[in-house]
Amino acid sequence: MIEIENLSFRYPGSRFGVALPALRIERGGRVAIIGPSGAGKTTLLKLIAGILSPDEGTIRVDGVTVSALDDGARRNFRISRVGFVFQELELLDYLSVFDNIVHPYRINRVLKLDQGVRDRARELAEQTGLADKLAALPRELSQGERQRAAVCRALLAEPGLVLADEATGNLDPANKLRVIELLIRAAERKRSTLLAVTHDHELLPLFDRVIDIRQPQGPEAE
C-alpha cells in the first residue's frame, strides 16, 4: 500500500527534515507512528499524502507514485483517495459542522456530492456523537467535538488510506476510544490502511504495528 525508498526532505532555510531509507506498509494495516516532538511524524504524513513533495526519493501509495505527480494531480489523488485528519483540524469557521464534513465534495470535481454522501455524513456524525451538532458552527463546539467533525470529514469518501495526525489528542477517555475504534472499523470495513501519529501509548495495543521515528536514525519497527 505504501512504499518509500530513499526519502529525503528538508524545509527551505531550515535544518529540520525527514530522511527514510525505506518503509513499507501493507494494505489494510493499522500502523501507529510514535516518536519525540520534532522527529518528523507530521511531515512524514504530509509527504505520503502529497501535501509536501520530497527533495529526493520515491513515495508510492496504492501503486501510484505520488512523488512524481504535479501539484494538481497530487491534490486530486489526496482528495479522492486519502482521508487526512489534520492536527490543526482545518475546519472552516463560517460553515456548519455538516457543511465542513461534506466540504471536500464541493471543492473538487473528482468527488460527487449526492444523497448517499449526505446520508453517510449524517451516519458518521451519529457514530461520533455529533448528530445534534450538524447545524452548529465550529466556534460553538468544544475542542473534542471539532476534532470528531474533522474525523467525519476524513472518513466521508471511504478512502483507501486514512492518515490521522493526533486524531484523539484533545478527547476525553470515552470519546478517545470512540474515535479510534471508528477509525479502525472504517479501515477494516473497506480494507483501508490506517496510519496514525499518536503520543498516547495507551492506544498502541489497538494497532498491529508501531513505527518509532527517532531522528536522525530513522524509523524503527516494533
UniProtKB/TrEMBL annotation:
Any one of the GO CC terms: plasma membrane
Keywords: ATP-binding, Nucleotide-binding
InterPro entries the record matches: AAA+_ATPase, ABC_transporter-like_ATP-bd, ABC_transporter-like_CS, ABC_transpr_LolD-like, P-loop_NTPase
Residues of the ABC transporter domain: 2-221
PROSITE patterns linked: ABC_TRANSPORTER_1 (PS00211), ABC_TRANSPORTER_2 (PS50893)
Organism: Methylococcus geothermalis
GO molecular function: ATP binding; ATP hydrolysis activity; transmembrane transporter activity
Annotated protein name in UniProt: ATP-binding cassette domain-containing protein
Origin: domain of life: Bacteria
Taxonomy of the source species: Bacteria, Pseudomonadati, Pseudomonadota, Gammaproteobacteria, Methylococcales
Alphabetized Pfam families for the sequence: ABC_tran
Keyword Secreted carried by entry: no
